[in-house]
Every structure is written in structure tokens, then in C-alpha cells.
Amino acid sequence: MGARLRVVRRRIRSVQSTMKITRAMELIAASRILRAQQRVEQARPYAIRLTEAMEDVARQTGSLVHPLLEEREHPERAAAFVVTSDRGLAGAYNANVLRRAEALMRRLHDRGLDVRLYVAGRKGQSYFRFRGVPVERAWTGISEVPPYAAAEEIGRTIIEAFSSREIDELHAVYTDFRSAFTLRATDKRFLPIAPEEVVGEPGRPAPEYVFEPAPGAILDHLLPQYVTAKIYHSMLESAASENAARRRAMKAATENAEDLIKILTRQANQARQAEITTEISEIVGGAEALSRGAAGR
Prior knowledge:
Layout: H1 3-61, E1 77-83, H2 93-110, E2 114-120, H3 122-130, E3 135-139, H4 148-163, E4 169-179, E5 182-191, H5 196-199, H6 215-296
Parallel strand pairs: 1-2, 1-4, 2-3
Antiparallel strand pairs: 4-5
């Protein structure tokens, strides 16, 4: 076997081995997309009921007054909570989120705000560390299956920073999961909470409640839960988007590997054909030399 043919066949085996891995990762990501979507759907009723409860409280109090609703007259510091993945091989998923985060930070700097970063995911942490951008707090190991306990910890950390006036605004940057084929990096302001988010539709008939304890005390408990629910929802959306992006990337890698195997197989056939032609030519040449030698005797 010629050296060229050996090299081509070695490359074919290497690509076939890689293709098996990418196909397995594609199937794993596809199975995780469904579970991630289910988690998003399961979390939605809780957020809806929480919002309805705050609407009921708001109707009883007549107005909403709470530190988490406070629009500060001269904000100085803003926080950006950036949700990325812990692992790579997800195509442009992380790049899109980080590009959106950079754009948000520029907008906040243009407003004269000092930006503090809170990051979920090793990819975001590595990205900002490499660029020398300080990160206030990072959470890793939670991107693919975000636990609610992690969202509570993140929410508690950021709410404490907002309540102590270490930050005046909170913006979240994450990937909005529309479908397995439609993923969009987005940013939204989470703090201060816009009053229209929790007041509800005017003129809608509503039942009357007797609150115990007082509505204000209930609001003190509900609003932090509302912020935590929004953080958790952004993490769930990002987890579903991450798996969808990884499935798409692995599918593209598998298809590219199949195309490469076809090209290499063609090259192997050409190399083998060239070897056979050379061998035939050598045999024919040897036979002719023997014939000439026999005729000369």
C-alpha cells in the first residue's frame, strides 16, 4: 500500500471517529431540548400566579411603593447579569450573548453609568477575565440544568446590592428561546421593576381579599420572589437555547464530516487506482523485458 493511500485512509478513520462523537452529541442535545422546554413551561404558571398576586395587592393598596420599584433620580451604577454556557461546541450561542452584553455595556457607559458584571457560565467568566474586565460575581456549573436554588442565590445577591444602593439598575443579557430554530440574544431591565409589570389591566373585575399580614408586608415578600422568578426564567430560556444551538452546531459538524469522508474516499479510490495502474505498468514492463531477453537468446 502506497504512502499516500495510507495517509488518506488514516484521515478517513479519524473523520469517522469524530463524526460518531458529533452525532452522539447531536442526539444528546436534541433530547435535552425537550426537557429544557418542559422546564420553561413548568415555570411559567408560577410566574403568572405571582404576578396576579401582586396585582391583587396593588389594587388593595391603591398604589405601589417599594424600594425595588424606586426609579432613582441620578443613577450612578448599573449591573449587567450575563447568562452564558459552561461548555462550548454550541456554535455562535455564546458569541451572540457576549456581543449583546458588550453593546449593553456601551449604552450604559454612554449614560455615564459605572457597570458591574454578574456572570453565569464559564464561557462568560473566561471572556471577561481574558479582556481584563472585572466580574463582581460568577456562578458556574449550572448552565445546562439551572437549579432554582442558584436563581435564589443570584437574586438575593443582586437584590442586596440594589437595596444597599451599590447598584441603581439591573439589566439581564440572555438568549430568548422562541423555538429550536429561532434563538435571539436579548437584554432586559429587571430592576427597578416597572410598576406597569405588576399593576395589571385597568378596569378588569377582580375579587376582594382580606390580607393578613398587611399588603405592604406581603409586597415585601412578593417583589423579591418576582425578581428571582425573572432571573430563573432567563436561565431556563438560556439553557433551552444552549441545547438548541449545540444540536444545530453538531448537526452541521456531522454533515461536514460526511462531506469530508466522501471527498477523502474519492481521493483514496484515486490513490488506489493510481497504485494499481503503476503495478500493471510494472508487470507489463517486466513481461516485455523478459520477452525481449528470451528473443535475444
